[in-house]
Amino acid sequence: MVSDTQGVILFMNDKAIEGHKADGGKDLLGKNMLDCHPQPARGNLEKLMQTQSTNIYTIEKNGIKKLVYQCPWFETGQYRGYIEQVLEIPFEMPHFIRA
User: What is the pTM (predicted TM-score) of this model?
Assistant: First the structure.
């Protein structure tokens, strides 16, 4: 999901549309993503957008573990908005330390 600097949703891929089906799916395009987040998550996201900070965490929902990556996006060095990317990941997965 990609938003502008105010949180208005500009783009959703098919997976995001399907994942947010209960909230309106494709109809969320043009709506503010902040309205999809209850407090305190909304306040946290507002702060991340204001400070142009990155937030990374995992969640479990309906028996599926997901990595959530939220970050600002820039075009020609200018802040343009915020991205939220969600990836399904296995509960157990290899971790490697590379030299």
Answer: 0.86
